[in-house]
Design brief:
With 396 residues, this protein is an alpha/beta fold. The chain contains 16 helices and 13 strands. The strands form 4 sheets. Strands 6-7-5-4-9-12-13 form a 7-stranded mixed beta sheet. Strands 1-2 form a two-stranded antiparallel sheet.
Length: 396
């Protein structure tokens, strides 16, 4: 008992005489813990920020896709002034994805009051030539089952679109896409038409294409697409315009309107496999050279460092800084789900297929011989090869 008591007294005396060492030790331990936690937090934050920078396109498209589909049914944005009109009804019916009767009525009322739309239309009407323009009746005769997108742009009676059943159409190119792993593939028809614009662009003022807040001079109007992917399509459009103004030395003074015709899926269009058909449609409508209905494209037109960082906004900054350098680094890249996409090609009567040169091995290995015997495939590595085939009449 005496030994135990003396041991306790020694410990107590030690603590009393060295209390400051204990406090220092505790404070030092606390400081180390705080530093470690802060380091881990900063490391995670930096990694998160880096991921946001490098993969902002993928994060946007995956996280925002369902929201985008819902907004497509409950919101309408004026392409001319940017005003957003919301319909505060109950949960939207997926079958109304393309009709949206209430929103369409609100859109018509807005266009009657929109000053920027009035200026655009008055300038457009002043440049009308003596020809027949499409109304609702003629568009339906031409095979356009849904024309809400034309109404929402206020262009009824101001445009003349190709007949969908014609063997050769200007501004229309078929594209292949897959919406899910359960989907066997879809053949969509990309329509592009151009109308006179109020601003001319050339090599000197080219960067103004990307100026914010210039709605009528935005050049690109797209219906039914996710905003993020429309941004990349705008970059592809700017690439096309650059080639026009730098090669032909002719100013660009057009607005471009794009839509997937007779499309009734609930989800808005987005994806990269349609960018080559998008570019080919631009070639067709600008140079007034028709494309055969037998032609389909599924390939990705990659520009600058987009395939490295998947950031449309970063690509725009590249273009503004040095368009010639950025556009010189382009190529036609392969796409995924080729076997699923090709499965519907023969069923729809398609005879000519445009693929990336990088896709050749994949095509030869995965596509059945009986399908390959019915298709003529054009492998292209860049737009120069695509344009060469276009001018040779391979797609007409």
């Amino acid at each position: 008992m005496a030994i135990s008591k003396r041991g306790s007294e020694r410990k107590l005396n030690f603590f009393k005489s060295n209390w400051w060492l204990i406090i220092v030790f505790l404070l030092l331990s606390l400081f180390i813990i705080i530093i470690i936690r802060k380091f881990r937090s900063n490391k995670w934050k930096n990694n998160s920020e880096e991921k946001n920078i490098l993969f902002c396109y993928h994060q946007f498209s995956k996280e925002d896709e369902r929201k985008s589909a819902t907004r497509f049914l409950t919101e309408w944005e004026c392409d001319y002034c940017g005003k957003v009109i919301e319909w505060g009804g109950s949960h939207p019916n997926p079958n109304q994805a393309m009709t949206r009767p209430i929103l369409n009525s609100l859109a018509e009322k807005h266009l009657k009051k929109c000053e920027k739309f009035k200026r655009f239309i008055s300038d457009l009407d002043a440049k009308k030539i003596q020809m027949t323009y499409d109304d609702e009746k003629t568009l339906k005769i031409k095979g356009y089952k849904n024309i809400d997108w034309i109404k929402n742009w206020g262009l009824l009676g101001r445009i003349n679109l190709p007949h969908l059943e014609d063997k050769k159409r200007m501004g229309i190119v078929k594209e292949l896409t897959v919406f899910s792993s359960l989907d066997k593939g879809n053949v969509l028809e990309r329509l592009i038409f151009i109308l006179p614009g109020s601003t001319s662009f050339n090599c000197q003022n080219f960067s103004e294409i990307f100026e914010k807040g210039k709605k009528p001079d935005l050049l690109y109007f797209s219906y039914g697409g996710s905003k993020n992917y429309n941004l990349y399509e705008k970059a592809v459009l700017s690439f096309f315009i650059w080639r026009v103004v730098s090669i032909t030395k002719v100013d660009w003074n057009y607005n471009v309107f794009s839509s997937i015709v007779n499309f009734h899926k609930f989800m808005p269009i987005s994806g990269g496999s349609g960018t080559v058909s998008f570019y080919l449609s631009l070639l067709s409508i600008y140079y007034q050279k028709p494309i055969s209905r037998d032609v389909v494209a599924t390939a990705f037109l990659s520009i600058g460092d987009f395939q490295v960082n998947y950031c449309s906004w970063c690509l725009q900054e590249e273009i503004i800084k040095d368009p010639e350098k950025t556009f010189s680094r382009h190529k036609v890249s392969l796409v995924g789900d080729l076997e699923l996409k090709i499965s519907v090609v023969v069923e729809t009567g398609i005879k000519k297929l445009i693929l990336s040169s990088e896709q050749k091995e994949d095509y030869e290995k995965t596509i059945p011989r009986e399908i390959k015997e019915k298709l003529k495939v054009y492998y292209v590595k860049d737009v120069e090869e695509l344009e060469k085939l276009f001018w040779q009449g391979e797609f007409s």
